[in-house]
Predict the 3D structure of the following.
Amino acid sequence: MAFIDDIKAKAKTDIKTIVLPESMDKRTYEAAEKILKEGLAKIILIGTPEEIAENGKGFDLTGVTVVDPFNDPNKQKYIDKFVELRAKKGVTPEMAKEQMEKDYMYYACLMCKCGDADGVVSGACHSTGNTIRPALQLLKTKPGISSVSGFFLMEVPNCEYGEHGLFVFADCAVMPEVNAEQMAEVAALAAESFESLVGAPAKVAMLSFSTKGSAKADCVTKVQEAVAIAHEKYPNVTLDGELQLDAALDPTVAALKAPGSEVAGHANTLIFPGLEAGNIGYKLVQRLAKAEAYGPVLQGLAMPVNDLSRGCSADDIVGVVAMTAVQAQG
């Protein structure tokens, strides 16, 4: 069974309600139709009757809950919650109302915050920043977590490495620069993400161009410090570094470069030293190995909110909604 089929099966075991705020994009409607037919989640679409009629024409939206942000009977509840959460930032009821009507992502996050939905998927026609900003302002991070990061679940065909070709790559989507403390946090969250989605123990490699001190540079020192922090703060995470990619994946290379490591040669969760490396790395594997790249999936938020690539297909949206539903189950 392909990874996404397994995720869809998990989603069906405990149906969650996911909000799709991008009613201005036809891919949203195609995805909603497929999600409902497959029984993966309950769907809320945010949009005016005019937007729904124009962009949803030709799609079967039976079972979709449509919320008009201008005439929703629950709107005052969301305005009050917005003001409660952002009063210290000077947000007034009038400002909250305007923001919610202008940017449906705020409306979607408030629905989650008030318990009327379990997660949000956006990004088909909005930037990552426009997806994350409302989530950070209204949903906040998990207790004890300082920042949001993003990962891709990579499914590499005919691959003997990782968990039968399954990997988590992080952070590939959110933070351009990470310090040692943040890198350790990303590693702990990525391990949790791998185990919840794949159902196998995570083995986390903190990547560098150096293995166990084979090279010296400030960027290598950062990874070494991140490893030390992770061992101290997250002792239950199976993690090692710094490791070069070949030492992380290949048992033969690992025996030479990192003998005795319980991760080297067996890693399935790869933590990159920066967004530049992570973004390049996942796209190389996606294109050259013809891998499936599911994500970017966000981690660290108090409730599941996930981003989409602006070049995504309707099937990509279906997959991310299924993953969001499984996150919400956790």
